[in-house]
Design goal:
Blueprint lengths: L2 E5 L4 E6 L4 H7 L10 E4 L5 H13 L2 E5 L4 E5 L7 E2 L1 H4 L9 H8 L1 E5 L12 H9 L3 E5 L2 E5 L8 E3 L5 H11 L5 E5 L5 H12 L3 E3 L5 E5 L7 E4 L4 H14 L1 E6 L7 H10 L1 E5 L3 E6 L8 E3 L11 H8 L5 E5 L9 H6 L4 E5 L2 E5 L8 E3 L3 H13 L3 E5 L2 H6 L3 H6 L4 E5 L3
Parallel strand pairs: 2-15, 3-14, 6-7, 10-11, 18-19, 22-23
Antiparallel strand pairs: 1-23, 1-24, 3-5, 4-5, 7-9, 8-9, 11-13, 12-13, 15-17, 16-17, 19-21, 20-21
Helix pairs in contact: 1-7, 4-6, 5-6, 6-7, 8-12, 10-12
Bound molecules: ligand EPZ.
């Protein structure tokens, strides 16, 4: 297993290109199953999760051609000859459940392994199954697999989500495009990745309106065509790199960044004393001379503060002036970076879903362990500002969601290197 060694100190100056969104690409790729014609995605990120989704789709019969070093993916699903999404692949990535809706819509049946939980929580898929039942599918759970059947095809329905679920909204959107009649999704997720999926489906011939709001209406059509679609910029990678100069001083321009992807996050940056300027090429970020002030953060579904940026913000607030409160309202166990930051000298008291951070002068480098994707990168950010060396272990989590993180940070002056594990 690889590790990443960060030596703290030294300002960051330069520009960082932001890739296409992992969480958009993972829901765009299963859309290939809805059509017999080729779907081409451009601006795709080069990540291990994308390779895992490719392997899953190929196991179902999709032919995938990757060009431009993986930035362009052309997928042809004219011949789907396997309707079982196997545990071996699904257990590596929860987003695999997103093939359930398209397989049911395309072939009227699907056998999909239940994804395991993961470090940040149990992460059930009950809402995904509720959606498919509402659209007329028979669902049976057996031997750790979801056995789904819709012999007469899916039919439109009105579905009210009890709480916002990004994945369940995406599965519903994918399935409803080929259902007979009208589907109305109420209390739907509003994330930019949902909007991006809807725009791609519309380019394929789907009839969708209201995407980006809490109510999405889909008129089913008989078939979908191929299309070419550019994956939206990754707002979580963007927010992560926007924070980097706040740890070290200096100024970084995140290419491709747009404020509207992260308004709530940018408001909190302003409150903490970090300036953000929209330029023609992206977002230019630097901290004010007064340093970082403690703030309070609560994670919420879009357009609120993203849960996927909570760990990174917590790492920054460890050396803010004053006390900060972070409330995690999306996942039940998403503070595992706290004890690792504690090893670096941070003062963090976790009580259920609330973490109280008391700012200290500076963190000290230490060997730390990554437990999930976003915790991994928060430890690297902490290492940038810490005194001495920080060795972040188990970085396979990192490679799931961040392209070449050490190259991007080193290009701005960071002292960071990857140590290839045994
Ligand atoms: C997506 O996960 C993202 N993953 C997550 O990013 C992100 O943190 C999350 O949305 C929230 O924004 C992808 O897009 C691949 P949810 P998802 O359904 O769809 C519960 C990252 O770091 N729930 O919105 O799984 C669930 O347990 C990852 O890139 C149910 O109870 O999130 C959670 O507490 C981490 N039953 C809450 O709802 C269900 O059927 C929100 O989950 C589904 C979800």
């Amino acid at each position: 297993m690889d590790s990443i060694l960060v030596t703290g100190g030294g300002e960051l100056r330069g520009e960082i290109p932001i890739a296409g969104a992992k969480n958009a690409c993972l829901t765009l790729m299963p859309a290939t199953l809805l059509s017999e014609e080729p779907l081409t995605l451009t601006n795709a990120p080069r990540l291990s999760d994308i390779k895992t989704m490719s392997a899953l789709l190929e196991s179902l019969g999709t032919e995938i051609t990757s060009m431009q070093d993986g930035k362009v993916l052309t997928m042809s699903s004219h011949n789907i000859d396997n309707l079982t999404a196997d545990y071996d692949i699904v257990r590596k990535m929860r987003a695999s459940i997103l093939v359930l809706g398209p397989m049911l819509a395309r072939a009227g049946q699907a056998v999909v392994s239940l994804p395991g939980g993961c470090a940040i929580g149990a992460r059930p898929v009950d809402l995904h199954l509720k959606v498919m039942r509402a659209l007329g599918a028979e669902i049976e759970l057996r031997d750790g697999y979801v056995h789904a059947k819709a012999s007469h095809g899916l039919r439109g329905a009105t579905i009210e989500f009890p709480f916002v679920s990004v994945g369940a909204t995406e599965n519903a959107l994918l399935a409803a495009t080929l259902a007979k009649g009208t589907t109305v999704l109420k209390h739907a997720a509003r994330e930019p990745e949902i909007v991006d999926l809807a725009q791609c489906l519309i380019a394929m011939g789907a009839q969708i309106e209201g995407h980006g709001t809490s109510t999405i209406i889909i008129q089913g059509v008989d078939r979908l065509n191929g299309a070419t679609h550019a994956v939206v910029t990754d707002r979580i990678e963007l927010g992560t790199y926007m924070l980097a100069p706040a740890f070290t001083g200096g100024e970084v321009e995140c290419l491709g960044g747009r404020i509207e992807l992260l308004e709530a996050f940018c408001e909190k940056l302003d409150e903490a004393g970090i300036s953000v300027e929209q330029t023609a090429r992206g977002l230019k970020v630097k901290r004010s001379n007064a340093g970082i002030k403690g703030i309070n953060v609560t994670t919420e579904p879009f357009p609120g503060f993203p849960t996927d940026l909570q760990a990174q913000m917590m790492a920054l607030l460890c050396t803010a002036t004053g006390t900060s409160m972070l409330e995690e309202k999306i996942f039940e166990n998403r503070f595992m970076h706290a004890p690792e930051l504690g090893r670096m000298g941070a003062q963090i008291d976790v009580n259920g879903g609330v973490a109280k951070v008391t700012g200290v002068e500076r963190l000290r480098g230490a060997p730390v362990m990554a437990t999930d994707l976003r915790a991994s990168v928060s430890l690297i950010l902490a290492g940038l500002g810490a005194e001495g060396e920080t060795l972040v272990n188990r970085v396979y989590h990192l490679d799931r969601g961040y392209e070449r993180v050490e190259e991007k940070l080193r290009s701005c002056g960071a002292k960071i290197e990857r140590i290839t594990g045994q």
